[in-house]
Design goal:
The structure holds two protein chains of two kinds.
Chain A lengths: L1 H9 L1 E3 L1 H23 L2 H7 L20 H17 L3 H18 L6 H13 L10 H5 L2 E7 H21 L3 H4 L5 H4 L17 H23 L1 H21 L5 H8 L6 H17 L8 E4 L5 H17 L11 H4 L14 E11 L4 E4 L8 H9 L1 H17 L5 E11 L5 E2 L31
Parallel strand pairs in A: 2-3
Antiparallel strand pairs in A: 1-2, 4-5, 4-6, 6-7
Chain B lengths: L1 H18 L14 H36 L3 H21 L6 H4 L2 H5 L6 H10 L14 H11 L4 H8 L5 H35 L8 H23 L23 H17 L12 H7 L3 E2 L2 E2 H17 L5 H34 L12
Antiparallel strand pairs in B: 1-2
The chains are: A alpha+beta, B mainly alpha.
Membrane topology (chain A): Multi-pass membrane protein
Subcellular location (chain A): Endomembrane system
Keywords (chain A): Disulfide bond, Lyase, Membrane, Transmembrane, Transmembrane helix
């Protein structure tokens, strides 16, 4: 066993797939940053709001006014450098840090996709993605055509993990039996050509989509691993992601996944892709540089492997942390994020805060739009940690206005996956007496229904 | 073994995708006609409301001209009656903030209250004003006329003095006249825009942030929550302040019609929700019938029924209020806050349950989703 393991970690393979992955990743990320900027989202999401929702423990990470643009510039440039394989190690570490900083600035914008990018770029910090077909190779006049096989496998493992966990999360009664929330989402796409006013309105189609989505997620990594089903699987990947792109506003993610899954293909395919790039460079009339070829070996593999083992152990365990919480996961969202739970819920909420001055004996409601953007208010209304953080912000705000000895209560209603709305937070609990922590939040009222499943 | 399992999974997924097509229960087979919804709202509610409002404002201008020519008690009464009639119709128009109305900030130029007395006085004194300017939003429209017709003095004799014996009477007459003409001009502009805009509005039935249904539903909910619930009841009752603010009621200077205006507004909201024609008793496709189509049964009852019941509950809480909200707040504010709470419950149903069922995003949340 140990021998097998040792020999596995000494096995080498072509560096081409990792080089293609690096280029694809860098270009995609650069495009994402440009797209994000061009839509005015930096301004809208990070500069305009008066208040930002922080992750527990990361309250010190905030947008920095107009300098926030500077962080995006750094992030975009580092993505470009990653694509070029120029000063790769520095570039990918800078990318990981700047991208993660951006994501931590305000949890309103949390998306599993963004978390995936952070996690993937952290993994890439440890991999020799500049070994081959990179500016670094030209600079050091040496390229490594062979790299340890585990480096490529680690990316496959991460991709597989994301798919499988997303599939496992779909094994629940709302998704499979009630076809929720697809039953809400699909009929509202009535304006799509051909399918909008026909099959998207059909219940059988919602159920079929739910089941095939679950089976797709669970099986696709294996279909990609296995050579005989690989092409079929890739066609599925392209079809599935394009289809979801048409149906839902999911930005760049489908393209990132399509390009990402290319890593499952043989080195031959990747060499062909690299040849296309080579021809492009010929077009620019660049002189071919002859490089010495050798195979890459880690000088510090003994340190890196345990770090990555820990990394994957965390990735495997983190999504299951929800079992430590007593209440319905979808309702309280304790342990919901960072778990590849994608598109599982349609949640709508309404939350009104009441500031009570117990001594003076009067109270007033807060106009949320005075402090939050519509996007923030929407996210806040359905997530307890947002509600608590906002209550604490209101405390700070009203105390600075001279209201001392205040208590804050909340009148909140949430509807989940087509159920009727029900009261969400205990209206008798003074939120200012509560603290954020990883402990269960006993001031969330129990869910009046049951969702069975993983 | 492993390979076989993979093949099996692939086959199952294909079979599952195909075979479940036989299990169709038959619901949702026919598509809801959103064009009919928009046509009904446009032809039977929005356009007739604007036309009626336009007529009422034309009458307001007529009465104003009579009053300006001869500012006496009789003409003042006629002017006031015309103002009140127009203000009642306005309650059906405020929720429609779409098309030309949105372009010219119609709502903000017609009914921002409390009106700003010092802005009005400055305008009168300077005689140099752009009534359409955003800074004058609280010095124009129905609330400004409320002040000019009821608020200038404690009694009618003194009030008429401002238009007759006062050394600056011409300035007061001019401002009142300009105010009224401006309201009329804006209303004419908006009303006439619908002769061509109606078709654009009806055709734009797709589910995007700029689609007619999305915009209309967002306007409707925004109006219900802010324009109706908060402005008419919540703010004066002190729901948003440490103490009640009776001077914030609608038609503050006239003071005895606040309840009547609220009632008009609740009726208009209900009619809009149910697609009831503004003229006559016919009804057509509406948000209510759309919800029925989406078959969102809640607690054994239809969501549309729940919403209608809540509107009725709110109206019954409003019915027991004094016609003068200032008196009501000063004697028994609890009844005001109870009315507010009843209106509030419908906000939850509209904003949470209805929006979820219609899958319309609140306003334009423009960002990627998962």
């Amino acid at each position: 066993m140990l021998n097998k393991l040792t020999s596995y970690f000494n096995t080498e393979t072509s560096a081409a797939p990792l080089a293609v992955f690096r280029i694809g990743f860098g270009i995609m990320m650069l495009a994402s940053i440009i797209r994000f900027w061009s839509y005015g989202w930096i301004e809208k999401l990070y500069i305009e709001p008066k208040f930002h929702f922080s992750y527990y423990g990361f309250e010190w990470i905030k947008p920095v006014g107009n300098y926030t643009y500077f962080i995006f510039i750094i992030c975009g440039l580092s993505a470009l450098f990653v694509a070029l394989g120029f000063k790769y190690r520095l570039a990918i570490i800078t990318f990981f840090l700047s991208f993660t900083y951006i994501e931590l600035m305000d949890k309103t914008t949390y998306l599993n996709h963004y978390y995936f990018i952070s996690v993937l770029s952290l993994l890439l910090c440890f991999l020799p993605a500049n070994a081959y077909f990179s500016l670094d190779a030209i600079r050091r006049k040496k390229q490594y055509t062979q790299i340890p096989k585990w480096t490529i496998d680690s990316i496959k493992l991460l991709l597989g993990l994301v798919y499988v966990y997303a599939g496992l999360a779909k094994i629940n009664s709302d998704w499979l039996l009630k076809a929720m929330p697809l039953k809400i989402w699909l009929p509202s796409k009535y304006d799509l050509p051909f399918i909008g006013d026909s099959i998207l309105q059909q219940e059988w189609f919602h159920i079929a989509m739910s089941w095939s989505g679950m089976l797709y997620d669970l099986s696709i990594p294996f279909l990609l691993l296995y050579k005989r089903t690989r092409i079929f699987a890739f066609v599925l990947v392209v079809f599935f992601h394009i289809f979801t792109r048409v149906l839902f506003p999911i930005g760049m993610f489908p393209y990132v996944m399509i390009v990402g899954t290319l890593i499952f293909f043989d080195a031959k395919v990747h060499e062909r892709i690299l040849n296309i790039f080579r021809k492009l460079f010929q077009f620019f009339n660049l002189k071919a540089v002859k490089l010495k070829a050798s195979s890459y070996s880690f000088s510090n593999q003994k340190i890196i492997l345990p770090i990555l083992a820990l990394f994957f152990a965390i990735q495997l365990l983190l999504p299951f942390r929800y079992v430590l919480y007593p209440n319905e996961l979808f309702w309280t969202e304790e342990g919901y994020r960072f778990s590849w739970r994608v598109m599982l819920m349609e949640k709508a909420g309404y939350t009104e805060f009441k500031v009570v001055d117990a001594e003076a004996g009067h109270s007033f409601s807060v106009n949320n739009s005075g402090f939050l953007t519509t996007f923030q208010e929407k996210q806040m209304s359905t997530q307890p940690d947002f509600i608590l953080e906002y209550a604490q912000f209101l405390e700070h705000h009203f105390k600075s206005q001279g209201h001392q000895n205040i208590e804050i209560y909340v009148d909140s209603y949430v509807a989940l996956n087509g159920r009727s709305s029900q009261r969400y937070i205990d209206p008798k609990v003074d939120l200012l007496k509560q603290n954020e922590s990883f402990k269960p939040k006993n001031w969330i009222l129990p869910f009046k229904d049951e969702i069975k499943g993983l | 073994m492993f390979k076989k399992a993979l093949f099996l999974m692939a086959i199952i997924s294909v079979v599952a995708a195909c075979s479940s097509s036989d299990e169709g229960s038959g619901n949702n087979n026919d598509d809801f006609d959103r064009t009919a919804l928009l046509t009904n709202l446009s032809n039977n509610i929005i356009v007739p409301v604007y036309q009626d409002l336009n007529t009422k404002l034309a009458d307001l201008v007529t009465q104003k001209n009579v009053f300006i020519a001869e500012p006496n008690q009789v003409n003042l009464e006629a002017f006031r009656t015309s103002w009140y009639n127009a203000y009642k119709v306005w309650q059906s128009a405020e929720m429609i903030n779409i098309g030309r109305a949105a372009e010219i900030n119609y709502v903000f130029q017609m009914n921002i209250y409390p009106t700003n007395v010092s802005d009005i006085q400055n305008n009168i004194q300077s005689q140099n004003y752009d009534l359409a300017h955003v800074n004058n939003n609280d010095a124009v429209g129905f609330p400004a006329l409320d002040y000019m017709l009821y608020g200038l003095a404690e009694n009618d004799a003194d009030l008429l003095g401002f238009y007759t014996t006062n050394s600056e009477a011409p300035k007061y007459l001019a401002y009142t006249s300009d105010l009224t003409d401006q309201m009329n001009a804006l209303t004419q502009d908006v009303t006439s825009s619908w002769s061509s805009y109606a078709q654009t509005f009806i055709n734009n039935s797709n589910n995007t942030a700029t689609g007619s249904i999305n915009k209309l539903v967002n306007d409707f909910i925004y109006y219900y929550e802010k324009g109706l619930r908060a402005n008419k009841i919540g703010i004066p009752a002190g729901n948003f302040s440490a103490t009640p603010l009776p001077d914030r009621v609608e038609a503050h200077y006239r003071s005895d019609v606040s309840k009547a205006l609220t009632t008009e507004a609740v009726t208009a909201v209900k009619d809009f929700f149910n697609g009831n024609s503004y003229n006559g008793s016919a009804s057509g496709e509406s948000l209510a019938s759309y919800l029925d189509y989406l078959n969102t049964i809640k607690n054994g009852e239809d969501l549309s029924t729940l919403i209608n019941n809540q509107f009725d509950t709110a109206q019954s809480k409003i019915d027991i209020l004094d016609s003068n909200y200032i008196l009501q707040i000063n004697t028994d504010n609890t009844k005001m806050t109870e009315a507010y709470d009843a209106l509030q419950m419908a906000v939850v149903l509209l904003k949470v349950d209805m929006l979820q069922a219609l899958n319309i995003s609140v306003d334009y949340v423009d960002a990627d989703g998962d």
